[in-house]
Amino acid sequence: MVRRQASHRLSFEPAAIYQYPEHLRPSLEGLPSLPGVYTFHGDSESLPLYIGKSVNLRSRVMSHFRTPDEAKMLRQARYVSYITTAGELGALLLEAQMIKVQQPLFNKRLRKNRQLCSLLISDLKPSVVYAKEVDFSHTSDLFGLYSSRRSALETLQKIADEQRLCLGLLGLENVSKGRACFRASLGRCAGACCGKETPEAHHERLLAALERVRVQCWPWEGAVGVVEEGPLKTQIHVINNWFYLGSVDDISEAGKLTSTPQGFDSDGYKILCKPIVSGKFPIVPLG
Description:
The protein is α+β, with helices and mostly antiparallel strands. It has ten helices and ten strands. The protein has helices at about 1-10, 15, 25-30, 55-65, 70-75, 90-100, 150-165, 180-185, 200-210, 265-275; strands spanning about 35-40, 50-55, 80-85, 115-120, 125-130, 140-145, 225-230, 235-240, 245-250, 285. InterPro entries: GIY-YIG_endonuc, GIY-YIG_endonuc_sf, GIY-YIG_UvrC_Cho, UvrABC_protein_C.
């Protein structure tokens, strides 16, 4: 009986029902070995199945056919389309933009997070603020990007444990003024609550621990063009307030991309912040 049940379960495993999707072969013939974004399309014209990116489109798309776990998506696919980019940065930006707009069925990341929040340090004390209420692109002393208030507070608690910070001064628990908190009696608080450490020293240690996740303000007054040179073409990616507005092949066309959405795009920020701040790509101010 046990053996028959195991055999029954096996028949429903992806590897057991996987067949190479021969019907997709015609749309695979022209796939280039270049950077870009690809889309698996199903029967719906408006709802794609999956959107991905790669520095080598052909290699990445073909890898899907060697993965039996993707059999369900491949059986629904009718054809594959692609858009080439100058390089990896353009592919990352375009993929994130397309996923947000088109909401493909099998993509589970890069979805818009309406509860995005951060830790704002003001008057020696952290508080949780939300991107829908505060302009993250231009507000100083923001630390970390979190999907929920709970996630932000868990990070603060972890830092407090690592740095022996006082939960009372951090606003995570109530303590009587001038009296040692419970953690201080256990040696888990350095004593800012009872005068063993000044509030200023406590604050400096908090800032030092948070510095690695400081949210960078947008460094320019307006939109800029980020120039990316690729093997076959050069693109100018138009960015404003960490939002990706689109890409053009000639700087004279950048003025057409002027509409900047409200809010804060955490995916755009994560993709762009390091390469822009590091000076990896030439920057052309457009304002």
